[in-house]
Amino acid sequence: MSTSITVDGVSRVFSGRNGDVVALQGATFDVKAGEFVALVGPSGCGKSTVLRCIAGLDTDYTGEVHVGERRVSAPSTEAGMVFQEHRLLPWLTVRQNILFGFVGTAAQQRERADELLTLMHLEAFAGAHPHELSGGMAQRAAIARALAPRPDVLLLDEPFGALDAFTRIEMQDALREVWRQHNTTALLVTHDIEEAVVLADRVVVMAARPGRVRHVEDIALPFPRNRASDEFAHVRASLLAQFSLVH
Amino acid sequence: MAVDAAALDTATTPQPRRRSRRRGFPIGWLVPVAILVFWYLAYTFEWVNPILFSSPVEVVQTLWTSTLDGTLPMHLGTSVGRWLLGFAIGAVLGLALGAVTGLSSFFERLLDPTVQMLRTVPIMGLVPLFIVWFGLGELPKVILIAFATFFQVYIQMYHGIRSIDRKLLEVGRMYELSTLATLRRIVVPGAMPSILQGIRLGLGIAWLALVIAELTGANSGVGYWMQTGREYVRVDVVLAALIVFAVVGKVVDSLVRLLERRLLDWRDTIEREM
Ligand SMILES: Nc1ncnc2c1ncn2[C@@H]1O[C@H](COP(=O)(O)OP(=O)(O)OP(=O)(O)O)[C@@H](O)[C@H]1O
Ligand SMILES: [Mg+2]
């Protein structure tokens, strides 16, 4: 099952020693049920802040955030979150980490873990601890953990930011596949335009100071998308043009 | 990257497993053995005054005979009993109070300054006070040991909780963990390295406090035995008692380290290479 996300006029101000920072000002956009949307924008434009508001981790904002019919006021297992750093619990094995938020009988747990380990190609590392994993494997385990309770929406905050180009491409393909199989709504924060064009049905472009939504672009390219095609280059160029307007 | 690609297309990547600890010649024993040899030579060739020193052989004999006649086991039993009782009381209080100040800033502001102030009191200075207050029985000794233990354990517990990554706590929030579940599943395991460290340091300092307590106004225990050796100028007894203290201290320390390694094998630190 999937659910829509609506962000309506969300503003968030951080008060610090050096005065107030307007991280978001009236940010408005939506993600339809089952859609894959990418959120791009320059560093500091409030991408993480929006995502934390949607996740319910940050509630000190004005405006409204809805996930489905529910107005978000606290974190919920309806939403699965993948952070920029993998945030696996270092004392648990990969299998235990994946099952961290999964509730079920021992048999259900075993089945779900096996399923996700296979899906993310982690079978050989089920018993390993996070420090024994490469960056890409750790991030795959983190995605598996977010997926385990079958969330209605999947929120990802630059999950591949720390990976090298090759691993990143593998992970992008894996993510799109996982999203399709789970039939969930996905919102992916990234600063990589190409990543947005590869994965998303729609791209939301944000601008900084104050953080706000600048532009929304439909990506009509069919899947699987060929990164080397002319159409791809064309879409990426037009998005990049949006981006440079932003600065 | 290479590992990653392999993991993606085949499942044959070998399971990463605990590396076996390097075992070579136990060079850690070289220095103690050298000291023993030097001691023996110094005694045999009378480099030292034989009245003020005994030979290693004599000390071993003393250890042997006092073990056989039951003196040493009796004293050691008393000492270990005091030590563990005092340690247990101090550790439980330290863990409890450390958890309270670690988890609540209110209690941290209320109690931590007092604890930090008391911590600087040298335990030697408390001996006369405790004797005046509690007499010469078991009570002042156990309290002294508990007192010394408390601070070590308290500080490690407090720091262990405070140094837990807030980012991991957010993971718990995403899964709507209750406060209790967060404690059990994130806070306690996260603080465990620090807690075990506190227990190890606490056992060590409790052992020291035990010696201090037994050297001042006791009528049993290894420290008391040592004291009688001093009175009768039995250097062999003093040295034998010192060896007992050192060996028991080391054995317990090794046991706790073993426990640490078993409980904390998920850690990726330099310590595990040692
Ligand atoms: N906890 C905080 N306290 C104070 N200021 C904050 C806090 N979190 C974010 N900010 C500020 O809010 C603004 C937006 O931050 P945010 O992390 O949402 O940016 P971002 O778009 O995710 O950037 P990046 O791409 O670098 O991750 C920044 O100016 C940042 O300094
Ligand atoms: Mg960010």
Fold blueprint:
The complex is a heterodimer of chains A (247) and B (274).
Chain A (H helix, E strand, L loop, with lengths): L4 E12 L2 E13 L4 E5 L6 H9 L6 E6 L2 E2 L7 E4 L11 H5 L7 H14 L15 H13 L5 E5 L7 H18 L2 E6 L2 H7 L2 E6 L4 E7 L11 H17 L1
Parallel strand pairs in A: 3-8, 3-9, 6-7, 7-8
Antiparallel strand pairs in A: 1-2, 1-4, 4-5, 9-10
Chain B lengths: L1 H8 L20 H15 L11 H13 L2 H33 L1 H15 L6 H9 L3 H25 L3 H9 L4 H37 L6 H10 L3 H29 L11
Helix pairs in contact in B: 3-11, 4-5, 4-7, 4-9, 4-10, 6-7, 7-9, 8-9, 9-10, 9-11, 10-11
Bound molecules: adenosine-5'-triphosphate and magnesium ion (MG).
Please characterize this protein's 3D structure.
The complex is a heterodimer of chains A (247) and B (274). In chain A, a hairpin with a 2-residue loop joins strand 1 and strand 2 (19-31). The longest helix of chain A is centred in the last third of the chain and has 18 residues, at 165-182. Chain A is 34% helix and 27% strand. With 247 residues, chain A is of the alpha/beta class. The model of chain A has no long low-confidence stretch (mean pLDDT 90). Chain A is built from seven helices and ten strands. Chain B has 274 residues and is mainly α. Helix content of chain B is 74%, strand content 0%. Chain B contains eleven helices and no strands. In chain B, helix 4 (71-103) packs parallel to helix 7, helix 6 crosses helix 7 (138-162) and helix 10 packs antiparallel against helix 11. Chain B is globular, with a radius of gyration of 24 Å. Mean pLDDT of chain B is 85; it is low at 1-20. The interface between A and B is medium-sized, with 37 and 30 residues. Magnesium ion binds at residues 47-48, 157 of chain A. Residues 14, 16, 21, 23, 41, 43-49, 191, 211 of chain A line the site of adenosine-5'-triphosphate.
> What does the average pLDDT of chain B come to?
85
| Helix-strand string of chain A | EEEHEEEHHHEHEHEEH
Order of helices and strands of chain B: HHHHHHHHHHH
Ligands bound to this protein structure: adenosine-5'-triphosphate, magnesium ion
Give the overall shape of chain B, derived from the CA principal axes: globular
> Major sheet of chain A, described briefly?
6 strands, mixed
